[in-house]
């Protein structure tokens, strides 16, 4: 019995490290962003990275419920990004 990593395991590790790196860089942009637009884009990128992390975790564990959770995260991320952008531009969300 060998302990060698398979190609799928290596791909999951590389993907996980890439998504975590992107999440950290997005957090830095969220804190340092000079304009509100930069901060909104950083939040949207963080949602996309979190979505990717959930999908990679679902692939790694082989559990299908993570894919349904990723759909919920995607919907909430889209709605929150639109609401925040509208608030920044107009000052209110509901007219």
Please name the CATH topology: Helix Hairpins
Helix content: over 70%
Q: By helix and strand content, what is the structural category?
A: mainly alpha
Biggest β-sheet strands, sense, barrel: none
Strand content: under 5%
Give the radius of gyration.
Answer: 17 Å
Q: What's the CATH C level?
A: Mainly Alpha
Mean pLDDT: 89
Counting structural domains, the number is 1
Low-confidence stretches: none
What's the N-to-C terminus distance?
65 Å
Oligomer: single chain
Summed up, the helix count is: 3
- E-strand count: 0
- What is the overall silhouette? elongated
In the CATH hierarchy, the architecture is Orthogonal Bundle
What string gives the helices and strands in order? HHH
Features:
95 residues, mainly alpha, Helix Hairpins, 82% helix, elongated
Q: In a few lines, what is going on in this structure?
A:
The protein has 95 residues and is mainly α. The protein has 3 helices and no strands.
């Amino acid at each position: 019995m060998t302990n060698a990593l398979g190609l799928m395991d290596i791909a999951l590790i590389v993907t996980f490290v890439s998504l975590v790196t992107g999440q950290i860089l997005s957090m830095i942009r969220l804190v340092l962003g000079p304009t509100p637009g930069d901060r909104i884009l950083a939040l949207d990128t963080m949602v996309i990275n979190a979505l990717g992390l959930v999908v990679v975790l679902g692939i790694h564990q082989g559990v299908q419920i993570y894919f349904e959770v990723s759909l919920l995260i995607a919907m909430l991320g889209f709605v929150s990004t639109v609401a925040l952008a509208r608030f920044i531009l107009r000052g209110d969300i509901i007219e």
